[in-house]
């Protein structure tokens, strides 16, 4: 028997976003005004707001305009990271970004997904870890539960559904290792 989806039965009451409704509401409008709109390009203000809402943010971090961050209290960003235009950090679960990480424009970190095998389409979440020196290319997606190990690269328009080896260059959907990354000194 094939079964059918029953979205009316969906229940994610088990999920705790980690903050009060008031804090989530305040962040929603802060995110909308200062991050998503692009009207306030002042990087220092964005870093201050992220820290105010519980994000751990290192030094030298650059957050470009039109960035969407779901829950800053579920976010740790290391030193000297770049977060490009139109990046979406959908961090229902914790996201850890190491030092010297680049998230290129329109890339997405998606910690949530749905169980398509269940008629109730249950929510599934998994943390994402981007270790030092990782580069997530433009329009690339990192899925829930994925670790991108030291200095790995996810190339343009690729989708990481499994861990990426250290110093590997990965391409495609799903992303596959295509070669080793060599960094010239």
Give the DSSP E fraction (strand runs of 2 or more residues): 25-35%
Distance between the termini: 59 Å
What CATH first level would be assigned?
Answer: Mainly Beta
Helix content: 10-25%
What is the name of the CATH architecture? 3 Solenoid
Total domain modules: 1
The coarse overall form would be globular
Mean pLDDT: 97
Q: Which consecutive residue ranges, at least 5 long each, have pLDDT under 50?
A: none
Notes on the protein architecture:
With 185 residues, the chain is α/β, with parallel strands linked by helices. It has one domain (19-176): UDP N-Acetylglucosamine Acyltransferase, domain 1 (3 Solenoid). Helices cover 14% and strands 28% of the residues. The chain has a 7-stranded mixed β-sheet. A 5-stranded parallel β-sheet has the order 1-4-7-12-15, with helices on one face. The N and C termini lie far apart (59 Å). The mean pLDDT is 97.
Short description:
With 185 residues, this protein is α/β, with parallel strands linked by helices.
Throw out a few tags for this protein.
UDP N-Acetylglucosamine Acyltransferase, domain 1; 5-stranded parallel sheet; 19 strands
Secondary structure layout plus pairing:
Blueprint: H1 21-36, H2 43-52, E1 56-57, E2 62-63, E3 68-69, E4 75-77, E5 82-83, E6 88-90, E7 95-97, E8 102-103, E9 108-110, E10 112-114, E11 123-125, E12 128-130, E13 135-136, E14 141-142, E15 147-148, E16 153-154, E17 159-160, E18 168-172, E19 175-180
Parallel strand pairs: 1-4, 2-5, 3-6, 4-7, 5-8, 6-9, 7-12, 8-13, 9-14, 12-15, 13-16, 14-17, 16-18
Antiparallel strand pairs: 10-11, 18-19
């Amino acid at each position: 028997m094939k079964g059918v989806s029953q979205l009316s039965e969906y229940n994610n009451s088990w999920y705790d976003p980690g903050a009060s409704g008031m804090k989530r509401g305040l962040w929603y409008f802060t995110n909308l005004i200062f991050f998503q709109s692009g009207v306030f390009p002042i990087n220092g203000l964005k870093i201050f707001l992220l820290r105010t809402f519980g994000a751990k943010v290192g030094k030298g971090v650059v957050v470009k305009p039109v960035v969407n961050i779901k829950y800053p209290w579920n976010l740790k960003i290391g030193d000297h990271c770049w977060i490009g235009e139109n990046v979406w950090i959908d961090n229902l679960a914790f996201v850890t970004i190491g030092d010297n990480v680049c998230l290129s424009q329109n890339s997405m970190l998606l910690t949530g997904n749905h169980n398509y095998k269940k008629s109730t389409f249950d929510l599934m979440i998994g943390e994402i870890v981007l270790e030092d020196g990782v580069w997530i290319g433009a329009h690339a997606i990192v899925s829930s539960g994925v670790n991108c190990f030291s200095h790995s690269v996810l190339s343009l328009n690729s989708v990481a559904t499994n861990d990426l080896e250290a110093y590997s260059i990965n391409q495609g959907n799903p992303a596959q290792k295509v070669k080793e990354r060599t960094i010239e000194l």
